[in-house]
Amino acid sequence: MSISNQVINNFNQAVKHFEDQRFEESLALLHKVLNTNAHWAHAWHFQGVVCSHAGKLTEALPGLSKAIDMDSKNAKYWHYRGLVYWGLADYRQALADFQKTLELESKNAYYWSSLGETFEKLHYLDEAIFAYRNACQLADAKYGYFLQWATALTNSGRVFEVKEVLWAVCRKWPENYVGYWNLSLNELLLGHYAEGWSLYNRRMEAPGLVDRQPQLRLAFGSNKPLWDGQVDLFQKTIFVYCEQGYGDNIQFLRYVPELKKIGAKVILGVPDTVIPLVWNMSVDAILIAGEPIPSFDYHCPIVSTIRGFVKAVSDIKGTPYITVPPEKTKKWEAKFNKHHRRLRVGLVWQGREKQPEQPELDTLHQQRNVGFELFAGLKIPEVDFFSLQLGMNGPESLNLEEQRARFWPQSNFYDWTSDIEDFADTAALITQLDLVIAVDTSVVHLAGSLGVPVWMLNRFNTCWRWLLHQVETPWYDAMTIYHQPSSGDWRSVMAEVAKDLKTFYLHYRQGTPCPKVLPGAVNLLQQRAQVYLVRANQNKARGWHHDALALYDLALDIDPNLSAAWNNKGNTLTDLKKYAEAIDCHTKNIQMDPKNPSSYANRSACWIATGRWQEALQDNLKAVELEPYFCDAWSNIGISLQGLGRMDDALAYFELATRLKPANSPDEHISNTLWNRAVALLTKENYTLGWQEHEWRWYLPKSIEARKLWSPDKHWLGQTSLAGKTLVVYAEQGLGDSIMFLRYVPYLKQLGATKVWLLIQKPLIELVNQFSGTDGVYEYPTLPSNLKFDFQCALLSLPLALTQYVPHIPSLVPYLKTPEKYKKKWKLKKQSLAKLRIGLVWEGGSASEANVHRNIPFEPFMQCFHGLPLEFHSLQKGQPAEGMAETHQLRHHWQLHHHQLGCMADTAALIETLDLIVSVDTSVAHLAGALNKPVWLLNRFDTCWRWLSESRTSLWYPSMEIFRQPSAGDWLPVLESVRARLQELAVKKPDAPFMTGA
User: Are 44 and 37 in contact (CB under 8 A)?
Assistant: First the structure.
């Protein structure tokens, strides 16, 4: 697109006007630019940017949308339009734009943060956490993104995870107080008081905090030290002052007398409305804001006085500790004496009004408030209710009289708050009541400090002081806490409170003591546990396993007997291959629910994955005892017997499982059964049926990626002639499988195929580039779009497709050749002409579940070869094996090559220089066999089907000898046998023909 100089000048001037905040002039110039260059995407986008900065959000959208239409691959365009939608409170459209942004550019932390904020606005907290985590894992992550992540975790109730995030903030930005402050609150919420209180005073670093309050200004301006609870105050003067809300001041007044008890002189600074509450408190002076402060030695915020007396939750001093001035008591007794005596309940449904100097608290205030209409559901005709509500919040709120007329027209609601002058009046009124029901405000602290029964209605993201998932609190002996079961769910809370209030009233009428904790508070926590469980299951279904685990832990923190949470947590840990932890979960579940057959089957999956075949067998036998038609358990019995080497018995159980659940509509379970039967058949050398049933692997979850290349209408299994046809053969499993089944590829050309293309894993490409019978080799899994073909076939399906044309196992070796350039690279000089050169591998690839029982622990493996007069070369690749070999005390006795081994052609060339390969069941063993190099396979007890069950030799590789475990996990006899054989070979001349002992 050609743009004239004049247009460019106009655009640049528009940019300058924008930078000078002369938005209208900028827009006028942009209008000229776009009149002559209507296809300039960047100009349309910039017009939208200018409109948005000018406050014209709606007018910004057309230009931003045109820019996207012209350049839909520009992530910035999508993101900026999302920001404008966000500003218009159209969060769903913003979400769509941010998701598109991240499709185009996923490595931008700001984009992930924007997505997280939008999810939060839509109340999708788990999704917001996912987005913030992604933001924080990127290099351009900022301080604020970590705090967003921590806040979302807190608001979602996932407080166990917050500590790790906040410590990351503190380590990365140690100069910033906010991370430490939030960390202190999280520690206190979890009851970790020693850790929490040690960090609590970091809040004093908040900008403007000291300047906002006169007494703080005087305290910190005095140059006197802040008391940390450790210094002896005997005969010292301490200035204690209030610096947070009324509730905080009331809560911590209990520790002022404790200061006197340790010999301190106390100057107490409190708001004037609180002074009547401390009328008889033993202090040396009481001051209000603005009064001069006498000389003092130390100062301390009233909340921080706890550091001198409380190290753990159990140290908290109980209640009551406040008394009402006598004149206030008489005033309110007189008022109530004129009123007939019935059950009296005080109500508070809203917190304090907004504080302009602390707008960050507005959201919390909104979250803790309950609509008056919900409180009206508590009304019982025989009970009198008294408002303790001072002030109504929100411009949309009706005044109290209007709300009463609308929701509580009955005459048993009283509002005497106009007679309240200070906190002492409120306290005196409360002492005349039988019960207070209130949201988290100063009233609950006041009622608690007086010892009056109080039911506190708590928001989902609870304040630190109420601890986590507690219906009682050590702070106030007469308090019961009713927690929201999910964020914003006040209806469930009020429904339970209404039921409990009826019970409370019945006890009052009958004159019997009422239990402190009634069922409603406990029921709400049980509901909360169920909410966590549902969210955990949703996250597990998404594949967010770590998020799911965090939520299962929260559910179990509330209800350790929640069987479903133990079960699903165990299954999630199984998905993460954390089998030991999963077994513990399933064992707990079985202890709670011993009659559930699925519990035993789920635990058996862990036993199977770790090669504990006998335990797996016992669990599945128990499962079918409880549920005789449990097809999967019968199948797992077959798998267990397979692992124990009892192939004939295994086949019988697989047959039984397929009868119970016929294979007419394959699902994961029946496909797994049939595939395992195929494995057993192949182990028994029944190749005719075995190769047929081996095709059931396509229906297994592990074949999902390979199945993307699988087209049933083009899948060739020998059903038609290849004469004149083109064929794509592709890898689908591990490197060893590909090497093993490459032997079948040359036969395709012999059957008349005109072109055969091979799609194979990247590490093998160099090795098979010139492979006989192929016309081109491409990297798996990307099939070139210009490649036209008639048929396709997976490597592991070739034996079935070629059944009528070739032997089941063509054994012509070698069938792989090392490229010349790699041979030249690895022509290494032998350290000693008198020593044989032995290549070693003790671990398989990290992706395989078989690793847990095919790998040999490093220490005994090393000791097996120590001291032998042979030359050892490590063929091992991948961590942690490489690191162990590099740092082990015997490392100098080995040649380590992992830094030089790139692709498999490198490994092949190195193998060509060696006399013998000793390896566990990995791709290296296959490679050595395909090159016809002597190889000793150290084989696990639950052998792979290809090595059969008892043979010392291999039908696949004539140069292979197999050393088998005598029992599951027992490598010692294998290593002893290998060492003895190597000692025999140690005297062999290097130039003599090498013979295996098979």
Answer: no
Element (H, E) at 841: strand 837-841
Q: Is 430 within 8 Å of 447 (Cβ atoms)? A: yes
3-state secondary structure of 358: coil
pTM confidence score: 0.85
Summarised one tens digit per residue, pLDDT across range 921-973 is: 999 999 999 999 999 999 998 889 999 988 899 999 999 999 999 988 899 99
Return the beta strands (E) in 288-351 as ranges: 298-301, 343-348
Tokens of residue 983, six digits: 């000692």
Instruction: Judge if the upstream peptide bond of residue 276 is cis by omega within 30 degrees of 0.
Output: no
Q: CB atoms < 10 A from the CB of 265, how many?
A: 18
For 780, the token pair is: 């798996």
What gap in Å lies between CA 894 and CA 897, rounded to an integer? 10
CB 455 within 8 A of CB 437: yes
Burial of residue 558, with CB atoms counted within 10 A of its CB: 0-12 exposed, 13-18 middle, 19 or more buried? buried
Question: What SS3 state is found at 418?
Answer: helix
Cα 430 from Cα 197, distance rounded (Å) = 31
Task: Output the six-digit token pair for 455.
Answer: 């039911």
The pLDDT of residue 998: 41
Per DSSP, the residues of 845-892 read -TT-TTHHHHS--HHHHHHHHTT-SSEEEE---STTHHHHHHHSTTGG
Contact call for residues 893 and 840 (beta carbons, < 8 A) = no
Residue 78 to residue 57: CA distance in whole angstroms: 15
- Give the C-alpha separation, 800 to 697, whole Å: 13
- Nearest-10 crossing angle of helices 125-136, 109-121: 170
SS3 302: helix
- CA distances to 199, 729, 781, 796 from 789, rounded to whole Å, are 68, 11, 16, 19
Q: What is the pLDDT of residues 859-882, one digit of tens each?
A: 899 889 888 989 899 998 876 566
pLDDT of residue 882: 64
Helices assigned H by DSSP within 563-612: 563-575, 579-592, 597-609
* C-alpha to C-alpha distances, 338 to 413, 474, 625, nearest whole angstrom: 16, 36, 73
Buried b (16+ CB within 10 A) or exposed e, 608-628: bbbbbbebbbbbbbbbbebbe
DSSP H helices in 357-399: 362-368, 372-375
Q: What single letter denotes the amino acid at residue 754? A: T
CA distance 177 to 169: 10
